[in-house]
Amino acid sequence: MEDNQYINMNPNILLSIVNMKLRDFYSNLSILCDDLQIDEKMLKEKLNSIGYTYDENINQFK
Questions:
Q1: Each residue's pLDDT tens digit, 15-53
Q2: Cβ atoms 44, 7 nearer than 8 A
Q3: Number of folded domains in the chain?
């Protein structure tokens, strides 16, 4: 998927997908963003808009 396809998703669905990928495939958010070609700042802003922030200690958005 291209960057804009993720960013244009419903933020609740995006949250679920990103947390699943972080749990199952990626050791941190930067690696996920690099691999999937997602702008990390835009992703964080999108998920912050629904009240979620990235917690690097547990490697997920909470």
A1: 999 999 999 999 999 999 999 999 999 999 999 999 999
A2: no
A3: 1
Rounded Cα gap, residues 38 and 32, in angstroms:
8
Which domain, by its residues, includes 27? Answer: 3-61
Q: What is the pLDDT of residues 43-60, one digit of tens each?
A: 999 999 999 999 999 999
What DSSP line would sit under 14-42, residue for residue?
HHHHHHHHHHHT-SSHHHHHHHHT--HHH
Q: Enter the pTM of the model.
A: 0.91
In angstroms, how far is CA 33 from the centroid of its own chain? Answer: 7
Contact 40, 46 (CB under 8 A): no
- Using CA of residue 1, residue 3, residue 28, residue 46, what is the dihedral sign? negative
